[in-house]
Write a structure and sequence with these properties.
The structure is a homodimer of 147-residue chains. Chain A has a domain of 90 residues: Winged helix-like DNA-binding domain superfamily/Winged helix DNA-binding domain (Arc Repressor Mutant, subunit A, Orthogonal Bundle). Helix content of chain A is 62%, strand content 8%. In chain A, a hairpin with a 7-residue loop joins strand 2 and strand 3.
DNA sequence: TATTGTTATACTCTATAACTATA
DNA sequence: TATAGTTATAGAGTATAACAATA
């Protein structure tokens, strides 16, 4: 049981927990509850309410074409969840920021996404405390935390 | 710090680890490496190589329309990854099973999905061992493990 | 009659290419 | 000339409705 074996086993379990059909179904369910599509929900999670972001940067972050970002931000704007403002430094660039309504929806989504599935709540209190410490440490190392 | 707080914090970290853009990008990358689409890859993961499953049951499991299952299984069959056989007990029912090629691809996908991201490998050996034990216990409680 | 699966069809999501406006 | 973003358009994925075969 090497260190690499342990890391693989951990990631395998974590992946199973996450891609289980029950869990995957939560995303559409939460999106539906907010009356947005799943892609708009993901977009909202990726926009920091405190700092508007250029469209181009979103395209890089999502590994998708720029035209797609146009369509997504259109959807957010139509629903009053985001706003486009030209950059003061380069008028070609448009900065996308969440409106108050968008930021509020984002908070609700993050809240609901944190609802733990039953497989987790069936662990003991001590186990949960241990997981909290270690996983918190790992998640803290992510570049751009989503929510 | 209640037990519920701990469970929420754990799930929140786990969700962050999993829906990070870097990690989400792994699915298309692995699928591309196998020359299948992401939806076919997910389908392969959800079919137990040891026991063919009725189309209707896949539709329930994936929370999607039956016509969609027809289209997905068509795609798998065209690539020689799965096969449809009428049930011996009810000739309306078609059982979907993986071919040898499909089962082999499934193993490769599971293998690659288990590659741990760098945020995990940066944990200590003791932390990984602890995570392995606890998460393995939780994942073992899932109904239909994928891979 | 009810159920399993298929076909026809429309809508959403995503990518490519051509375009506009700034730099 | 190059870059940020948009528009037009085509292809994949998904849902609804009508249908065929079987129960």
């Amino acid at each position: 049981m090497s260190r690499d074996d342990d890391a693989r086993a951990v990631w395998h379990s974590l992946t199973q927990l996450f891609i289980s059909d029950d869990n995957q179904r939560r995303f559409p369910a939460i999106a539906e509850g907010e009356d947005v599509t799943v892609r708009l929900m993901h977009a909202i999670l990726d926009i920091d309410p405190a700092s508007p972001i250029p469209m181009k940067q979103l395209a890089r972050q999502w590994y998708c074409d720029a035209s797609n970002v146009t369509s997504i931000v259109d959807g957010l704007e139509e629903r009053g969840l985001a706003r486009r403002d030209p950059s003061a430094h380069d008028r070609r660039v448009k900065l996308v920021g969440l409106t108050d309504a968008g930021a509020a929806m984002r908070e609700r989504i993050v809240e609901r996404l944190s609802d733990p599935p039953s497989v987790l709540t069936s662990l003991t209190g001590a186990e949960l405390k241990t997981l909290r410490t270690i996983l918190g440490k790992a998640a803290g190392r992510l570049e751009a935390p989503r929510g």
